[in-house]
Amino acid sequence: MPFRPRAGQPPPGAGTGTATQEKAAYPYAGTDATLKQPVVWNGKASDSDTLTANQQLSGNQKLISQDGNFALGFFQPAGEGSNGKWYIGIWYNKIPVQTIVWVANREKSVSDPVSSNLIISDDGNLVIRLNNSESPMWSTNIKNNTTPNSTIATLLNTGNLVVRHNSNTSIVLWQSFDDFTDTWLPGNKLSRNKKTGIVKQMISWKDHGDPTPGMFSIELDPKGSPQYVLLWNRSVVYWGSGNWTGNSFSGVPELSPTNSYPNSAYTFQFVDNDEETYFAYYVTSDAKIFTRAIVDVSGLFQAFVWIEAAQSWVTFFTQPKAKCSVYGACGENSMCSENAASSCSCLRGFIENYPNNWVLNDHTGGCRRNVPLKCGNNGSMKAKQDRFYLINSVKLPDNAHVVDAANTHDCQLTCLNNCSCTAYSHNGTCLVWHDHMMNLQDNTGGSSDRIFIRLAASEIPNSETKKWWIIGIIIGAFIIIGLGVTIVHFLHKRRISSINQGDRPLIRFKYSDLQFLTRNFSETLGAGSFGSVFKGVLPDTTTVAVKKLEGFHQGEKQFRAELSTIGNIHHINLIRLLGFCSEGAKRLLVYEYMPNGSLDKLLFRDSSINLNWKIKHQIAVGIAKGLAYLHEECRDCIIHCDIKPENILLDASYVPKVADFGLAKLLGRDFSRVLTSMRGTVGYLAPEWISGEAITTKADVFSYGMMLFEIISGKRNLEHTETTMETFFPVLAARRLLAGEVQTLFSSELIGGVHVGDLERICKVACWCVQDSESSRPTMGEIVKILEGLVDVELPPVPRYLEVLAQGIENVGFFYSEPTK
After folding, report:
1. Residue 10, domain member (yes or no)
2. To 10 degrees, the CA torsion angle through 732, 648, 721, 266?
3. Angle at the Cα of 111 (from 108 to 116), degrees rounded to 5?
4. Which of 124, 143, 402, 434 is deepest in the core (most CB within 10 A)?
5. Which residues pair with 267 in a beta bridge?
6. Which domain holds residue 346?
7. Least confident of 439-443, 728-732, 767-771
8. Tell me, what's the pLDDT at 423?
9. What is the DSSP string of 207-247?
10. Which H or E run contains 347?
11. 51: domain CATH number?
12. pLDDT confidence of 42, banded at 50, 70, 90?
């Protein structure tokens, strides 16, 4: 076989890292882009972790901890809007992803790091000065320092910057660990000093490009209970950890040290004595992992571990679980929905305050009115000028005011008679909201509450006109109904003609057509990296799936040219493109409808459907045939680039259809950038994605192999459970395959009726697909022949890349749970 390893071949992936690659991957703005740059003191280069009284740090100079893991210096945030804004901060020095753990001058940036400097002033304080000004823009504010001229500042291996006496370093005058920003490092304490009343808080950044203190924070419970809490605006508690039970918090059992790694690498400490109350966590000395916890700009409290093999931070803890339970996550005058593709949306008549932040999934800025309210001097004028629209099935906003009103009409008048009233609700009790609404949530199917939102008259059709229409309909009921039926029939026939015009393979839809066919995009089938999918029905009753594309900027001519190519690709295992819409910035694709949805739903989410081995084998072969057609039989080779269960759809007979195969072609050269920025997990990415090599069809083969493991086991390869695990499933399968024990991986119910030889064959294919070297992987055409039993295949080696990845993944608690025998 062409994918059989050659004798004497070095381990795939060995020696692939280069200094050039490391340098290119280091994104810190304003540095020389090396992983460890020496600090320059008076023109002499030397590694240093300490700043003394006769030295200064400016430009691209840095302090580096003795172990080289942390650096301190000037930096620019990686997020948008940070141009020309520089800060002094601490970051991970060896990690090629900008990860800031502390910021000094977070409330006031500097415009030029070369003319600014970090020095120890005459009074012993560490300060930031602009253009050698005598007045510092930031200071450690050390009080009562008895020996100011002998102060030094040292960056410790823990990431803590300390200011202390040079002659007696055990005396710490100030430390960055006492000055939390948004990050909690091992060894730091979340505390409350009972004597001074000082409370240490973690406070989120304002947005991803601005470290200014944001709206969310975490601290020990202000009421004194032994727990820590998340707060909005330093006042509203929206989540709590539950009380300390002795080795963990009652509401966060996943952080118990008795659970699987990485928690076994941690020790937790909660102390409550006469001096202080604090909670801290520590990493055992032999763990050798980078870990941190943050309060994100979205209001979530998250913990991460760095996975070296994947070159990314992996989340192993997030609270709260429900995104809409974060107070103020969507800001003012917006709606939060747990099930929507985007959790936050502005109410009708409102627009985003900060649109650029919304693109970065920071919605805390909320929404503002399109048209100001016209509030007159008396109730009658107000009634004519402002109107209301109704939203059903909601969880009502916070801070409602109860007023005396006998019915809904009186409640409405009460709101109209108050210029600051923005909404009302009446369900036996009249509730009104003034100025701004916060935490309005969509609760479809779970609540009968409804709310009336006040808008300017121009935002809502004239109610007087509507009333006359009602009168006219009543008077001329039979005439209007008859005329209406005639008009509807005429328009329906005209719409059918418009939709089906021409003999081209693809139907060109108008945007208004798709609004009509999808009932204004009211029924969502799913959402992915490139847009949401909605259910629609054509005039001939054919059900379709309509996908709204996001982030596509091709010109009209180029878009249609690419679609004409994709539209001519027909295969039983590829989703069929029926039509498209291209109007201005609107890009939509119309596909055939798949009643059994996506493969991930059937494998991982719908426990009521049991896919037997015959169906699983049918799915595996069908996907391989679809990819083989794209790779080997099309006029132009098409690399999918995003093979995963979410992109495999199933028809009524469970025949698989590869979906979104045209997006790689539509995106063209931008696809790798888009995929890199949008991928949710690293579970399906071939090593060449991470190393930056050119992508070939073998990247799809690797992704197919990782997915094949999931089809066999019925579980995510990166699944996290609370059970004690053995190892990462793909590695475990490869090892058991070599030992001739692959059948021991599965319960009898899971593989009932399957021949051991068939099971070994499909596991061999999966293991060959995920080999490190592209040349060692089979083609999709060869995979089809093997799965159909036409070609035999030898035992594969355990992929080295997966073994390395498994070591990192096991460090964050993602494991395969073996079935009970």
Report:
1. no
2. 80
3. 90
4. 124
5. 282
6. 333-369
7. 728-732
8. 94
9. ETTEEEEEEEEEEE-TT--SSEEEEETTTEEEEE---B-SS
10. none
11. 2.90.10.10
12. very low
Q: Which of 147, 179, 211 is the last residue of a domain?
A: 179
Please choose, from the candidates 334, 308, 237, the residue with its C-alpha nearest in 3D space to the C-alpha of residue 690. Answer: 308
| Contact criterion met (CB below 8 Å) for 548 and 518 | no
| Beta strands in 457-611, from DSSP E residues, in sequence order | 507-508, 524-528, 531-537, 543-548, 577-583, 586-592
Burial of 329 by CB count in 10 Å (0-12 exposed, 13-18 middle, 19+ buried)? buried
Residue 750's CATH number: 1.10.510.10
Q: How far is CA 108 from the centre of its chain?
A: 29
Residues 315 and 364 in one domain: no
Give yes or no for residue 162 having a pLDDT over 90. Answer: yes
Q: Is 548 among the annotated ligand-binding positions?
A: yes
Q: Which tokens sit at 41?
A: 């003191």
At a CB cut-off of 8 Å and minimum separation 6, what does 205 contact?
A: 77, 106, 181, 182, 211, 212, 213, 214, 297
Question: Are 168 and 202 within one domain?
Answer: no
For the chain, what is the largest distance between any 2 Cα atoms, rounded to a whole number of angstroms? 100
Give the pLDDT confidence score for residue 535 in this predicted structure: 92
Tokens 């190393």 belong to residue: 691
pLDDT band of 7, cuts 50, 70, 90: very low
Same domain, 69 and 94: yes
Which residues are the active-site residues?
642
Task: Name the average pLDDT for the chain.
Answer: 78
The CB density around residue 186, as the number of other CB atoms within 10 Å, is: 20
Q: Which residue has the higher pLDDT, 485 or 265?
A: 265
Pair (286, 400) in one structural domain: no
Strands (E), 93-220: 100-103, 116-120, 126-130, 138-139, 151-155, 161-165, 172-175, 183-184, 189-193, 202-207, 210-220
The tokens of 445 are what? Answer: 């199917």
The pLDDT value given to residue 684: 84
Q: Are residues 637 and 782 in the same domain?
A: yes
Separation CA 734–CA 755 (nearest Å) = 18
86 vs 498, higher pLDDT: 86
Interatomic CA distance for residues 586 and 588, integer angstroms: 7
| Amino acid (1-letter code) at residue 176 | S
pLDDT above 70 covers a percentage of the chain that reads: 74
Burial of 742 per CB tally in 10 Å (0-12, 13-18, 19+) = buried
Only one residue has tokens 């963990």, namely: 248
Instruction: Give the residue carrying structure tokens 């009708």.
Output: 348
pLDDT beyond 60 at 746:
yes
Q: Find residue 336's DSSP bridge partners.
A: 344, 441
What type of residue is 247? N
Tokens 């007045």, residue located: 135
In a domain? residue 4: no
Coil, strand, or helix at residue 723?
A: coil
DSSP helix, strand, coil percent of the chain (3-state; round to 5): 25, 25, 45
Provide the 8-state DSSP code for 641: S
With a cut of 70, say whether residue 153 has pLDDT above it: yes
Distance of CA 590 to the CA centre of its chain: 27
Same domain as 400, residue 429: yes
Return d(Cα 716, Cα 600) in angstroms, integer. 9
> Does 79 map to a domain?
yes
Residue 329 near residue 343, CB atoms below 8 Å: yes
Q: Are 727 and 635 in contact (CB under 8 A)?
A: no
> Cα–Cα distance between 108 and 87 in angstroms, integer?
8
What is the C-alpha to C-alpha distance for residues 166 and 743, in angstroms, rounded to an integer?
65
pTM of the model: 0.55
Residue with tokens 């995979």: 783
| Cα–Cα distance measured from residue 640 to residue 643, given in angstroms and rounded to the nearest whole number | 7
Angle at 183 between CA 179 and CA 188, to 5 degrees: 60
Do 26 and 108 fall into the same domain?
Answer: yes
CA dist 152 and 145 (Å) reads 12
Give CA–CA dist 356/358, Å, rounded: 5
Inside any domain, residue 819: no
Amino acid at 290: F
